[in-house]
Design goal:
Number of helices: 10
CATH superfamily of the largest domain: CAP
Shape: elongated
Number of strands: 4
Number of domains: 2
CATH architecture of the largest domain: 3-Layer(aba) Sandwich
Distance between the termini: 93 Å
Mean pLDDT: 84
Oligomer: single chain
Keywords: Membrane, Transmembrane, Transmembrane helix
CATH class of the largest domain: Alpha Beta
Helix content: 40-55%
Low-confidence stretches: 55-70
Order of helices and strands: HHHHHHEHHEHHEE
Largest sheet: 4 strands, mixed
CATH topology of the largest domain: Pathogenesis-related Protein p14a
């Protein structure tokens, strides 16, 4: 007669299955990206997953794995500059996101956005009998550089990649530390989301950008600003890259207490 397994065996088996499922769910981007990387052998993949999930060192023929948890850098609210690895950039979903981001950037009309955004700001200011705001063309270059840094280095923080304050990117502005303010925004959006297409219309994009910063723009102390300049840039993201292609949008609004 075949011997029955003790009931404790089934409890242990169930515990192992639940543990493995939990590890996969909580580390899915890492595990999927590792398994999708054709440059890794089976043992190298096991080593990377053990390091990322359990903090263990597996056996490997190389000193360093080709993919590590740090390679997945994109996440909402990241405040430190990061660079995405070349291995992640080679993934199909990342390349799809990169193509869509390039399309958005090519269609983006920054001048139209700023004039339309300025109209919306001044409509509100007219309603409250405040002074009108001008388009801050003198802020253009610094705003471009600020947006590009935040986009290419996948972070959103008050400092530049050199660790200086944001206003250091405006060396031509006297007393910039006292005159300038900034508002920042990021959005992770699926590459096939229809909004990336509709936002190619500057009028629609201006409505969206105004809605993002509306609370600040309509606050009392913001009425001291006399000019502003905004910019939007899209960049491919490795956020959830094993599942789908994500684009990260960065929106920067720089304001000046002077008109020019």
């Amino acid at each position: 007669m075949k011997e029955k397994l003790p009931i404790s065996f089934y409890f242990k088996l169930m515990f192992i299955i639940i543990t493995l499922m939990y590890a996969y769910i909580t580390h899915r981007p890492l595990i999927d990206a590792t398994l999708m990387n054709e440059n890794l052998s089976a043992m190298e993949s096991v080593n990377v997953i053990l390091q990322g999930v359990l903090g263990m060192e597996g056996s490997s023929s190389q000193d360093k794995p080709l993919v590590s948890p740090l390679d997945l850098v994109s996440k909402p609210g990241n405040t430190e500059p990061q660079l995405i690895s070349e291995e992640i950039k080679s993934l199909a979903n990342y390349q799809i996101a990169a193509e869509r981001a390039n399309q958005f950037n090519q269609q983006f009309d920054g001048e139209a956005l700023n004039y339309l955004l300025n109209e919306r700001i001044n409509t509100y200011r007219s309603d409250i009998n405040a002074s009108t705001m001008g388009v801050g063309h003198h802020l253009q270059e610094g705003t471009w550089n600020r947006t590009e840094e935040l986009s290419l280095y996948h972070y959103l923080g008050s400092s530049t990649i050199e660790g200086t304050a944001f206003y250091s990117l405006f060396p031509e502005i006297p007393d910039s530390q006292y005159r300038l303010g900034e508002n920042l925004y990021e959005l992770y959006i699926a590459a096939d989301d229809i909004h990336l297409e509709t936002w190619s219309n500057p009028d629609i994009l201006a409505d969206y950008v105004y809605s993002i910063f509306q609370d600040s723009l309509e606050s009392d102390h913001y009425q001291t600003y006399q000019s502003a300049y905004a910019w939007v840039q899209a960049e491919a993201s490795d956020y959830n890259v094993s599942e789908t292609a994500y684009v990260r949008l960065v929106v920067v609004l720089i304001l000046d207490t002077n008109l020019n």
